[in-house]
Amino acid sequence: MNWTEMQTDWDQLSPMLKTWWPSLNNDDLLRIAGSREQLAAVLRERYSIDHDEAERQICAFEKEARLPGAVR
Prior knowledge:
- About 70% of the residues lie in helices and about 0% in strands.
- By secondary structure, the chain is an all-alpha fold.
- Helix 3 runs antiparallel to helix 4 (about 35-45).
- The termini are close together.
């Protein structure tokens, strides 16, 4: 799933994001609102990781994320 698709389906992805990153809360997800840069910033803050690690985790999520019923 690419980031444009994620932005479009942000509300549907929110539960999946909380599974990958359990420290994210509803306020975080509203603040992020589909922004990759905001997600990276929140991940750095919540998990005390650097920019490169946040990007690595986001890329891994992009590769693995599939909405129910999505065709690979």
